[in-house]
Design brief:
The complex is a heterodimer of chains A (249) and B (278). With 249 residues, chain A is mostly helical. Chain A contains 13 helices and no strands. The radius of gyration of chain A is 30 Å and the shape is elongated. The termini of chain A are far apart. The relative contact order of chain A is 0.06. The longest helix of chain B is centred in the first third of the chain and has 4 residues. By secondary structure, chain B is mostly beta strands. Chain B has two domains: 117 residues, no CATH class; 141 residues, no CATH class. Chain B is built from two helices and 23 strands. Chain B has a 23-stranded mixed sheet that branches. In chain B, a hairpin with a 2-residue loop joins strand 6 and strand 7. Classes of the chains: A mainly alpha (249), B mainly beta (278). Chains A and B meet through helix 4, helix 7, helix 9 and helix 11 of A and strand 11, strand 12, strand 14 and strand 22 of B.
């Protein structure tokens, strides 16, 4: 047995005739074996690290937030998309760097890669904040959405989920406002029209109506008429709906 | 999930069912103390009630002290709640208030059955507080340092002498908030359908503000730098006559205070927005 073989074996099983024979003949390997033994012993002396009390709580908070996220609309797709987005972004950056390294001053390409990277960062921040337990954090997520690209469908979907499902009125209100950034997309307009009948908080209803007026969304007339005619709806909201109908004509 | 502490108020009083006469006395305040499992770790109080007022107050102690007074106790005994898996009932309550502690979160819920219950809850100053009520009276939160969320359907929201962050909404009441200091980077929002939004902020706060009132005015004594896209404010300068310098905005305005920072939103449909400098 060579010294090299012996040392490889030392890392695992230290028994066996071949190894013993080699040990008897080689002082350097004997020293090495005792050194490894001593190291294992001193590693054993290290105290076991117990997780601190808040680790458990944080884990469950995180788990709760994650579950909350799962229960909101199309979560799986979202997560898969994140991974895809990260992979695509990395690939894009890699390609960008590769092109850059080849020289020939491809500055505009680099700049656009960088811009893409920043956009996907902002998207990640907005999306993850919007899934937090704390309303204040979710509000921050909504304000990050203002920095997303107006074509960013993931952020748009997250905002629409917030408008329709967030438990906090103030978060829903902020999310309605943030939809203005996505006014160019017909999907946004349709989603806002659809959100109107299911919304029951008067202040959010008013915000949606104002948004539809800003969008000049004529398709909203039906939903607005229904709202204006419903006696169960808050008077202020019905008044706003009537005003909106006039504006949209 | 060990040691989930479940207390029903009735259990604390000795057999309230045996003393129906006592239970029917008005304002029979009941008091119960719940410890937080790890007082040194972040604490949270969650209150969710149907009817009755809620007052949350920070104090120099380590436990949550919940006092409840039913307005018409005993008239409609509360139906017994389902026993959660893995737990057992310690006692039944006639006050209709349930209190649980789990992982440093104390949850108080009630008013769903029986009469309205007015709650006064004392917690350590460093506690995050979330209060939600449906109908009834005011929500009052004072002397708290943490993240505060309040939602009152049909009453006023008063949040005073607090620091941290506040997200507050009332449907049909005033929202009055006074912050001594704010957590950096926290977004805040104050809104009501019918009532004034009256918020006092630290003079050195850095924030981007977004204000909207449909049928009201906006007032502030802060030097708010209004975004050029918004409509210009009307300035009332009474300093020459010993008065205040006020800026009046028209509806729907954004701007920044002290160079800008996290977003603060002020919204009311029927009411004024007042932003005071502390």
């Amino acid at each position: 047995m060579t010294c090299e073989q012996a040392r490889l074996q030392m890392l695992g099983e230290t028994e066996g005739q071949d190894l013993a024979a080699h040990m008897a003949s080689c002082e350097a390997c004997r020293n090495e074996l005792s050194r490894i033994g001593a190291m294992w012993q001193s590693l054993d002396l290290l105290p076991l690290e117990e997780p601190a009390g808040q680790v458990r709580q944080r884990f469950y908070e995180m788990l709760g937030a994650y579950r909350q996220g799962l229960s909101s609309a199309e979560p799986r797709k979202t997560y898969r998309w994140w991974q895809l987005a990260a992979a695509a972004a990395l690939l894009a950056i890699g390609l960008g760097i590769g092109y850059g390294m080849r020289g020939n001053g491809q500055v505009p390409a680099e700049v656009s890669q960088l811009r893409e990277e920043v956009a996907s960062m902002r998207q990640l921040v907005a999306l993850s904040l919007m899934q937090q337990q704390s309303a204040s954090e979710r509000l921050r997520g909504v304000s990050w959405a203002y920095q997303a690209e107006p074509s960013d469908r993931e952020v748009l979907e997250a905002l629409l989920t917030a408008v329709n499902h967030d438990t906090n009125v103030n978060v829903r209100l902020a999310a309605v406002d943030a939809l203005r950034r996505f006014s160019a997309s017909p999907e946004t307009r349709r989603a806002v029209v659809e959100a109107l009948p299911s919304q029951t908080t008067p202040l959010v209803q008013v915000a949606l109506i104002d948004l539809l007026v800003d969008f000049k969304e004529r398709e909203a007339a039906g939903a607005l008429k229904t709202l204006a005619a419903n006696r169960d709806v808050n008077d202020g909201v019905r008044q706003q709906a009537r005003w909106a109908l006039e504006k949209l004509q | 999930m060990k040691n989930l502490l479940v207390l029903s108020l009735g259990a604390v009083l000795l057999a309230p069912a045996a003393l129906p006469q006592d239970a029917q006395k008005p304002q029979d305040a009941q008091k119960v103390t719940i410890p937080f499992r790890n007082p040194s770790q972040p604490k949270k109080l969650v209150v969710d009630t149907m009817r009755g007022s809620v007052t949350v107050r920070g104090y120099e102690g380590q436990e949550a002290i919940v006092e409840t007074s039913s307005r018409n106790p005993g008239r409609e005994p509360r139906r017994a709640a389902e026993v959660p898996a893995g737990m057992h009932r310690i006692g039944s309550s006639t006050a209709g208030v349930d209190i649980t502690e789990d992982n440093n979160t104390v949850k108080v819920s009630g008013g769903f059955f029986g009469g309205p219950a007015d709650l006064v809850i004392q917690v350590p100053v460093q506690t995050s507080v979330s209060v939600k009520t449906m109908t009834g009276s005011a929500v009052t939160i004072e002397n708290i340092s943490g993240e505060i969320e309040a939602n009152n359907m049909n009453g006023q929201v008063n949040i005073t002498n607090v620091s941290g962050s506040v997200v507050a909404h009332s449907m049909n009441g005033k929202v009055v908030v006074s912050l001594n200091s704010v957590m950096p980077d926290k977004a805040m929002s104050f809104s009501t359908m019918n009532g004034d939004v009256d918020v006092t902020l630290p003079a050195d706060i850095k924030a981007n503000v977004k204000m909207k009132t449909d049928h009201g005015d906006m007032f502030t004594d802060f030097d708010i730098k209004v975004d050029s896209t918004g409509q210009p404010p009307r300035v009332e300068d009474n300093r020459g006559r010993g008065g205040r310098y006020r800026v009046r905005f028209d509806r729907g305005t954004t701007g920044s205070i002290n160079g800008g920072g996290p977003e603060i939103q002020f919204t009311t449909f029927n009411g004024n927005i007042l932003i005071h400098k502390k």
